[in-house]
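Can't paste images in this forum, so I'm doing it all in text. The chain is below; anyone willing to post the predicted structure tokens underneath?
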Amino acid sequence: MTGAGGDLPPLPGEEDAPGPGGLVRQNSEAGPGAPDYDTPGTATSGPHGQLTAIWTVLGTVYHFDKDEKDQARGVCAQILNIKLKSSADLSYNQARTVLDTLAHWEKQALDRGDNPRAYLLEMLEAAKKAREVTGE
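Text version of the structure:
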């Protein structure tokens, strides 16, 4: 299966019941007793906890080191356009959005021959400027 970034291998959890475009989203209306994957904190629960995957991608692809946890958390907050005190507050679906976005940006950077971290910073700056223009 093709991952969220195109020709990249699937991210953790993408092999399981892919949705449109290969992206996995857990349905928060799955029925009684089912976890609500839109609930803050669910990124760390279940068999496919996503926080480790986010930190792995930010470390290995985008070269964030242990001293840059605040910046890495800021990347998540900017991608989602939310205030985020702790990455443990992410919902499962928010974490998937971050992972999908990071995979997409990595592919775009590599297709352009750019450094993925430089491309990530460029995308975040463009999003910040767009929010300033729109007043978000």
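Residues 41-134 form one domain. Residues 1-6, 11-25 have pLDDT under 50 and may be disordered.
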